[in-house]
Amino acid sequence: MASDFAHELVALLPRLRRFARALAGSADRADDLVQSACERALRARDTFQPGTRLDAWMFRILRNVWIDAARRSGARGGEHAALDEVAEQAGWDGRAVTETRLLLAKAREAIAALPPESREVVVLVCVEELSYREAAQVLEVPVGTVMSRLSRARVKLARALGQLQDEDVP
User: In angstroms, rounded to a whole number, what is the distance separating the alpha carbons of residues 149 and 105?
Assistant: First the structure.
């Protein structure tokens, strides 16, 4: 059983790292967060309830580690990282790749400019594909709060990406 837990934890590392980068702002700090979260999870693996989602449990641990680290450093925010780079694939049209990278860079900037609470919800729901309920459990807020934050974040992102004008939203 412990071996299965460890294998599942290893399989989650790329997703944990992506979430950590969205929180921490740099690859080095994200790696430290992931390592601390994995250490904490391994120490507490007996508290994990089989049949529940390990990813949601780990995202919650990771977020708590980030909050603890931010409290120790005296700041909640900090610089914010971009999401993982677009993978290059052979045979792609150079113009399409360039346009995609420019749009992705603009999206990264828009996500990084969101308040931490909004950024967390966007990453958990839109990138990591957690349900609203699962994201609410990770963030320790009501489901309605997740929905509200996500709605406001989507409007801000649409405006930042030029897909929505101020007069389009009441």
Answer: 22
